[in-house]
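Q: Hi! First time doing this. I have a protein sequence and I read that you can turn it into a structure. Is that right? Here it is:
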Amino acid sequence: MIAGVFVGGASSRMGGRPKGRLIAPASDGRARASIVERSVSLAREHCDRVVLVGRADAYVDLALPIIADACTAVPAGPLAGLVSLTEYAGDDAVIAIACDMPYLDGALLARLVHFAPDAAAVAPRHGGVWSPLFARYDAARVRGPARAKLDSGERALWSVLEAVGAVELPLSGSEHATLRDWDEPADIDDARGE
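A: Yes, that's right. Below is the predicted 3D structure, encoded as structure tokens:
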């Protein structure tokens, strides 16, 4: 299984600062580290290989393979990254992880890895909305539908989950909280007040 940590976003709401480089709070018995370092460490515990997906200039010192987004006429965001990741993976399953989840939990990642092993894709939902960047994809079965969505101009990554009949990973309220992301400075301020 290959974990792809998605690092390619523009981070415009964070003022262009690479979100994965923000320092995550110490938790889970782990010392403080950048969010991306924490995510990579967790992924290594459950996956054979870990790669970075997307524009990764700010992360080259991590010495991980970098998978560029699939080429499109206009920027296509994480859907282009998923296409590249599934092409890179061949017949392996892949885990997609956003680089901006400072509370990601190892036990929840383990559940994602093992839940509904025969499903084409597995992801949680929050408020009825899929979480496609904390999801497991069967690369061989998802690659074609993902490429078709990308080629048609689709940009919504959740549409791939719908297209392949993804299985929902049920989460408790506290598990949903571990998937909170940091999109803007106020998210960091809120975390300091906890």
